[in-house]
Specification:
The protein contains twelve helices and three strands. By secondary structure, it is mainly alpha-helical. Helix 4 runs antiparallel to helix 7.
Length: 258
């Protein structure tokens, strides 16, 4: 196998392949938080050469999923509950700023129309009288779409780049804790509140009310904290969270070398 990282015929470059496979391995629990990473066995495990793997390790360190250790090498980062909350709060700050900019800058009506359509589709999935959502996967897609549209409407490339970096951790995304809501009857109330906030955000942006849009955007992200609390209260639900293997429920420990 070539060690240059060039693109193989008909496939992804080794560099990109290594990044995608390593990130997937971490997110799916193949590598746990606190676990040391050894290059040689990991390269064999991922089916890539060592040069692309080293670039992938550096990329995931930049994303915050890995941490360099003294003496060389990396360890998979283990996050505390407080750090997860910080990530949620950071997303709220960025979404609030995006909402303000969208309200103050939006001129083109097509993004607003797309946002209206997204909210209308979510409305058809959620109602106060319904005890649950039949199509949760559809809700996740639409919820992610709403947030993508909102960030895009900010018109700020710098903010969009910061938002992408903030979402590098699985539990920071808008839908990270939605699976918890799919299994708890009482959490359906949070989904309905979230959708009401979607409509309020849309209204504030449409009216050009920047301060109001920012406040709603920041408050909207705080709903994820409720879901985080529910997840921590249920071991079964916690284990189903994407990236739960990166969140410490007790004191962090360094695991074995792979």
């Amino acid at each position: 196998m070539s060690d240059s990282g060039v693109r193989p015929a008909g496939g992804l470059s080794q560099n990109l392949t290594a990044v995608l496979r390593l990130r997937e391995l971490i997110f799916e629990g193949g590598l746990s938080g606190g676990e040391r990473v050894a290059e040689v066995p990991l390269a064999e495990r991922l089916g890539v050469s060592r040069t692309p793997l080293r670039l992938a390790l550096a990329q995931l360190e930049h994303e915050g999923l890995l941490e360099a250790i003294s003496g060389g090498g990396f360890v998979v980062r283990l996050f505390t509950r407080e750090q997860v909350i910080d990530a949620i709060d950071l997303r709220g700050l960025l979404e609030g700023a995006a909402a303000r900019l969208a309200a103050e800058r939006v001129i083109d009506q097509s993004p607003l129309e797309a946002l209206h359509g997204c909210v209308a589709q979510i409305d058809r999935l959620i109602a106060p009288s319904r005890p649950a959502i039949a199509d949760f996967e559809r809700y996740v897609v639409l919820n992610e779409r709403f947030h993508e549209l909102l960030i895009g409407m900010s018109g700020s490339e710098a903010l969009q780049a910061a938002y992408r970096r903030a979402l590098a951790l699985p539990f920071a995304s808008p839908s990270a804790f939605v699976m918890v809501q799919s299994e708890l009857r009482e959490s359906h109330r949070t989904l309905y509140v979230a959708q009401r906030q979607h409509r309020q955000l849309l209204d504030a942006v449409e009216r050009g009310e920047g301060s109001r849009a920012e406040a709603i955007g920041r408050e909207h992200a705080r709903l994820a904290r409720e879901n985080l609390d529910w997840a921590f209260d249920s071991e079964r639900m916690f284990d189903r969270l994407p990236g739960s293997n990166l969140i410490a429920r007790a004191e962090p420990e360094v695991d074995h070398v792979v």
